[in-house]
């Protein structure tokens, strides 16, 4: 607990001292007519500013864990309820994976599989059925399918 506080304080101190030292540096070869010269460029890494911002913000001890973000009313209060929440979330993930693997015909794309591990077989969810294909020319003699024919085709496939 105290180690994080100490780290934050050291980070604040270092940021303040570096910024004050950088502010005191003056360019040596200033060739300005007005006597105003921009300070030299401060070299920063890609995450230096984020680290400085993180040093100013602490962790809220009263906030709940980020996995309970859905509804504040449903946040578990006891350890038993937290464990039950975690187990039910894992059971939901496993149920979704089972439906994905066992009933892959319900899905048209397989973007959930990693490229090297294709667990679900490829299945076109919208196969071409000639009885349902539209006729190129509609006239009075064109035959329409009745509901029993459609039902029998759906039961067969």
From TrEMBL:
Keyword list (alphabetical) reads: Mitochondrion, Repeat, Transit peptide
Q: Using the record, list the residue span of the signal peptide; answer none if the entry has no such feature.
A: none
GO BP terms: mitochondrial translation
Instruction: List where this protein forms a coiled coil.
Output: none
The Gene Ontology terms for molecular function here are:
ribosomal small subunit binding; rRNA binding
Give the GO cellular component terms, alphabetically: mitochondrion
Instruction: Tell me where it resides.
Output: Mitochondrion
Q: What PANTHER family does the record point to?
A: PENTATRICOPEPTIDE REPEAT DOMAIN-CONTAINING PROTEIN 3, SMALL RIBOSOMAL SUBUNIT PROTEIN MS39
Put simply, this protein is called Uncharacterized protein
Q: Which organism is it from?
A: Leptidea sinapis
């Amino acid at each position: 607990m105290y180690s994080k506080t100490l780290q934050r304080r050291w980070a604040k101190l270092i940021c303040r001292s570096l910024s004050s030292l950088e502010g005191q540096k003056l360019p040596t070869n200033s060739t300005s007519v007005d006597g105003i010269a921009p300070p030299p460029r401060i070299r920063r890494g890609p995450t230096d500013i984020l680290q400085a911002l993180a040093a100013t913000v602490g962790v809220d001890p009263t906030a709940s864990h980020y996995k309970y973000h859905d509804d504040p009313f449903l946040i578990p209060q006891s350890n038993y309820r937290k464990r039950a929440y975690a187990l039910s979330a894992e059971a939901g993930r496993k149920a979704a994976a089972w439906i994905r693997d066992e009933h892959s015909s319900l899905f048209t794309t397989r973007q959930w599989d990693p490229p090297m591990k294709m667990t679900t077989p490829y299945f076109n969810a919208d196969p071409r059925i000639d009885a349902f294909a539209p006729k190129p020319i509609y006239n009075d003699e064109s035959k329409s399918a009745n509901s029993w024919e459609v039902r029998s085709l759906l039961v067969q496939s």
